[in-house]
Amino acid sequence: MMRSLFSGVAGLRTHQTRMDVIGNNIANVNTVGFKSSNVTFQELMYQTTQNASGANEDTGRGGINAKQIGLGVSTAAINTTVATEGASQSTGNPFDIQISGDSFFIVNSGQQNYFTRAGAFYVDGVGNLAMTSNGFNVMGWQPDPDRPDLIKKDTVSPLRIMSAANMTAEPEATTAGYLSGIIDKNSTQLTSDSGLISNIAFYDSLGYSYVAKFSVSSKDGTDALPEGVFKLTLTDIIDSATNKSIVDTDAGETVGTYMNLSGNESVYIHYDTKTGKYLGWDTSKTQTDPGNAESTLDLTTTGAKDSFSTIGMRLDESVMYDNNETSTFAGTAGDYNGNHAGRKVGTMSGVSVQTDGKIYAAYDNGTTRLLGQIAVTSFANPSGLEKVGDNLYSATMNSGLFDGIGKDVTSDGVGKMTTGVLEMSNVDLSAEFTDMITTQRGFQANSRIITVSDSMIEELTNLKR
Questions:
Q1: Three-class SS of residue 219?
Q2: How far apart are the first and last CA of the chain?
Q3: Which end of the chain is more exposed for a tag (fewer CB within 10 A), N or C?
Q4: pLDDT tens per residue, range 186-236
Q5: Is there a contact between 344 and 204 (Cβ–Cβ < 8 Å)?
């Protein structure tokens, strides 16, 4: 039989392989994170009918080239164009994530780590971040137990972002507050039986809300106080849930059963009669130079309500003026920077993924919490990864092995994560259709080799007639 027959068959096989790859590329033109492949050919071994010889000085004859007959073509390699990014597709789903750069997400089947560029994720029934196609867990790093606001970069593990513990945020007791504004020294409220009323809303350590009510008066009983001196009294504590007082007056309880003002139900606050500037507080109404100008006035629990915490109140932002009988004296929870105001128990209201892969939860009590960070990895030779289906790759000896820890996607200064966006296939249809044409023509040409060779053999068989 003629060698050309087998060369033609080899050509048909390799072009069929190339067509199979092209067909797979086109079939996955809309597959998320798909990386196209291309085929390269190589010639098959040659049959040498005469070896090459060198020039002979004795005979004067020149050298002769080798006589070799090729045996066709074979597939040299099927390469995956991993380095080329696909276009972006906006989805609006916060758990659809695109990586820019050459990194891969790390997912785990429960037995083995795999790698993918397809960031179509969701949260499963137990709160794990997982792939939508097969439920494999997305891997990353957990917050440091000693510093929950920092990530501990260790061996990757599943990101259980919506565990029962993460669905709520702990309450926080109010530990600071302040009374500020203007006390109008001529206000008729200061001489009334109820006095000038101010409130501070606060939280206890269990997250329950209360209101501490204060009365500011310019008299002590029936006696008028010296100018610039006012009596500050803690008059009631209201449960915000029921809007009722927690002080049981029928049982003879007083506000001091629950909280007091630095050990007292009433103290005296002093102001400069000329400038109106706050001078301090004291237990004496005759003190002209109170000794507590720089210290806070503490709302302190007495033990009957153990969930209450001490609240250090400042008064140095309050002033005394003649303000046309308009007082603005009021209470505010927290310090002057808004810290330590306390919080109720928080319920998770949202989750966000940052560009570096850090996942934060937001709660309806105003707090945020770091839940973890999505880790990524990269390979020295990403084309050496082995495709295993479901948009997944596995590491091989030629790609380089995964170290078990991974890296921050932003560590190279180029990569980042974008939420609400997916990476589309990087298939170039114009290039694929062009390759399809050249593959078809190559296949046709190789088929002609077989038909012509068959005709030549037929001529040989006809010689016997």
A1: strand
A2: 20
A3: C
A4: 888 999 989 999 999 999 999 999 999 999 999 998 889 999 999 999 999
A5: no
